[in-house]
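If your schedule permits, I should be very grateful for your opinion on a structural question. I have a record of one protein: its chain in single-letter code and its fold written as discrete structure tokens. Would you kindly read the sequence against the tokens and tell me how you understand this chain to fold? Thank you for your consideration; the sequence and its tokens are set out here.


***
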Amino acid sequence: MTVRKSQATLSSDEKRAFTNALLELKRTGVYDRFVATHNAFLRTDSDFGDRVGHRCPSFLPWHRRFLLDFEAELQKVDPKVSLPYWDWTVDRTPASSLWGPDFLGGTGRPLDGQVLDGPFAYSGRRWNITVGVDRHAFLRRSLGAGGAQLPTKAEVNAVLDMPEYDTAPWNSSSGGFRNHLEGWRGAGLHNRVHVWVGGHMGTAASPNDPVFWMHHAFVDMLWAEWQRRHPKSAYLPAAATPNVVDLRRPMRPWNNVTPADMLDHRRFYTFDTEGPAPHRP
């Protein structure tokens, strides 16, 4: 069984194995296929039309499957690798260990946001950006620019305490847990982290930055924690609803994967915080 660990607990060997697997997927072109998929869905998901990956109830199951597919590709390269998660309520500054030169590298330079250190720096010629919003071939970041702040534990707990999964009209104006976690309402949790990292993370092609996977692994863990706190609260909508994915409807781009298939993460992996005393952010 795959165990997803906090990035803060990874050993030097585990960090190296993870980054080496990422670089290999980049070399073979597999990585950029995932970037292109996310880019296409985020650009077409709409509050007023068909929506599958964002601004809708299936945001969480869609990304759970997206991460599972990506993790499977990593494990083809190295079976010992799993997706780490970044708890941004704890590791909150550009000085946190995940931004070190031995892992993801740091923020970008003021001129153009180019990341200059770490294994994904353009100077290494191993991380060229091919799917993006501009013609630059280098990874861009601007950590915490403009005084931005990452979400706090208190803000996260307030969202985890919401008892209803989602509400009509099932888009970015909805109430409920999903929309507050996705970040269109309230404290802006998930969206705010994308903005805090900046650069490519602030675009539809956000998986260009490897921190995308660790950010979404933590969002996924928060969904699992919400499910633990609210065992009687179901995925909504349960019945067919225009423009959104109900419990039993397949999610594009998969032909046979429904939200119902993604409700129990323990079928696929556990988190290192799970056990007799589950993690409470």
About this structure: Residues 163 and 231 are 10 Å apart (CA to CA). The chain has seven helices and two strands. The domain at 2-271 is CATH 1.10.1280.10 (di-copper center containing domain from catechol oxidase).
